[in-house]
Amino acid sequence: MAQVEKKAGLLRKSSASRKPLKEKVVLMYEEIFAREDPAKNNPRFWEELFLMKVNLEYLEGKLESLDGDELMKIKDNINSLFQHCIQALGEEHQIRVVNALQTLCALFRGVHQKNKSTSGFDIINMLMGFDKAELRMKDLMESLDTLLCGDGSESLKSLCLKLLLCLVTVTDNISQNTILEYVMINSIFEAILQILSSSSSRRQHGYDTVVLLALLVNYRKYEASFSFSSSVNPYIVKLSIVDDETTLNGKGLVISQALSEYNRQYKDKEEENQGGFFSALTTMVGSMFIADAEEKISVQTNEAILLALYEAVHLNRNFITVLAQSHPEIDLVTTLSTPVPTTPTAPLGTAPPSVDVIQAFPSISVMSSTELPLDPNLQTSNLLITFLKYSSIVMQDTRDEHRLNSAKLCLIILTCIAEDQYANAFLHDDNMNFRVNLHRMPMRHRKKGADKNICSRPLVCAVLDLMVEFIVTHMMKEFPMDLYLRCVQVVHKLICYQKKCRVRLHYTWRELWSALINLVKFLMSNETVLLTKYNVFHLALLVINLFNMFITYGDTFLPTPSSYDELYYEIVRMHQVFDNLYCMVLRLSTNAGQWKEAASKVTLALVNIRAIINHFNPKIESYAAVNHISQLSEDQVRGGVGLKSSSAWTAGVSAVPKHKTFLWIWDFRRSK
């Protein structure tokens, strides 16, 4: 009841003997919502209004209660309110400026909330009058730019950013927000860069600034990419050419801190769930309640900061260097000696805009930023490591659409990184080794905390570990086909770089091969269900092509000849999987169905693998029969049968069918 009274602006309810007592600012709002000019009887009306504490709830509620026709009846008063708000932004008195900013925020939210189906041009007309919109928005953006770049209070700057975020996110689809055309014309990009390049401003406003820039970049992004007119989004162009090291590092620091905060929260909740009765119970019953345990330690993901990271990596090649900028790996929260307020403290009790201004992205939260103190005793980290840890958490659970989209965005960012030449250079650099402890999904055949004692390795090893982990842990009924395609493509791009640059990476390749073979096995086991939803042959072809790369060009990037032995052993050991796949694609490629062409491509891609299997299987069976052994060990296969790259392959190359895409052996190619 008290909340209702507050929303109605009541200081005292009505009774038989007394009229209801309302706040003075509410009475002034009621004059605005009347059809007459409020300044007609009181020339100082607007001056007095901005000295009053804003009642956001009442103002927004009143605007939301009016439909388009009712708003048009008081259009002149709304236009006048909007105009005087902009004029008040130039006042020296900070109370007027604060109240004007909050009133503008309420105007944008209130008008859009009720009239979501109304065209953007009509909303512009309701707010400021279409004939004067360009002038009004020019004055507004210039005032906000002056406040953001000036020496005013941090509270005012924070309110300016909140207003801009409110303006950007009032529509569900940012590209349908017609008002942003004026934000494109009157750019505040330089003000954004100034905030990111200053350590003091970045502490207070870095997060909001980075999110705001990411949203502005996405305004009609794909429409502008095909346009050659002046309507191209200027924020896209300007972000793509930023080369100031301080600014780029500042943006990277803000993103790193936001992701680190998420990782810390997850780790804290994870530790809370360890060692209790629930943990003991799940251990006793074979982890049958693992899914429930995971729900308890889930943390709200942060798509806004992921979007900012994607735009930076995708648009600006100079930002790639920021990914590798090393800094101490610390708990960011402990670095704050005094907490920074997450919302600006407005003078004289004026309330800042409500936290829900960012309506289009529910996960956007206002978090403070802090600089990273240097300590030589701390382990080194960088933005990429922080992002990989974040991704390993997000990718664990993709059951709901929200987390599925978050995992997809992580894989898209990894794809951008894997495509970049410079990024690959530092990913594979032996002189840049890091210990990356990725989070692993709990499974019945392994304990959650049973991670390997990971040594320092090039960062590409952590990326491959993350991809292998995803492949192994998401073979489920609700199969995330799109994520699997992106995951395998990331691996493919990394292998292409290794082949091109002849990088011999010391990695446990067998884990990757085993994961890929099990993936093919899963696709065949669930053929009937999956084919009704997806083209599984596209994914199968990507997997087989990966094996063909190892077979054909492995001598250019596998670390030792024994790596070839392991590859062929895995292929021969799991030959039944490839045989079954061949039977399936052969059956579908010979029928006149919708999958004929896709299945035919997989049939052709299997030539190399089938040649290896057909060459060695008879030898293995013969050796087992002669020695009366029912099951051969790996050493027996590799030694007794002659599955060795350094000897048997050179001797037996003429006995194996040759194909133009099939280069057989390590020593054979090296001898040439």
Please explain how this structure is put together.
The chain is mainly α and about 675 residues long. The chain has a two-stranded antiparallel sheet with strand order 1-2. The chain has a two-stranded antiparallel sheet with strand order 3-4. The chain has a two-stranded antiparallel sheet with strand order 5-6. Helix 21 packs parallel to helix 24 (about 460-475), helix 24 runs antiparallel to helix 25 and helix 26 (about 510-525) crosses helix 30 (about 575-590). It is elongated and about 110 Å long.
| Biggest sheet: strand arrangement | 1-2
The average pLDDT is: 80
Shape: elongated
Biggest sheet statistics: 2 strands, antiparallel
Q: Provide the structure class.
A: mainly alpha
Strand content: under 5%
Please state the CA-atom Rg, rounded to the nearest Å: 31 Å
List unreliable stretches of 5+ residues.
Answer: 1-7, 224-229, 286-296, 332-376, 646-672
Keywords: Membrane, Transmembrane, Transmembrane helix
Subcellular location: Membrane
InterPro entries: ARMD3-like, ARMH3_C
Protein name: ARMD3 protein
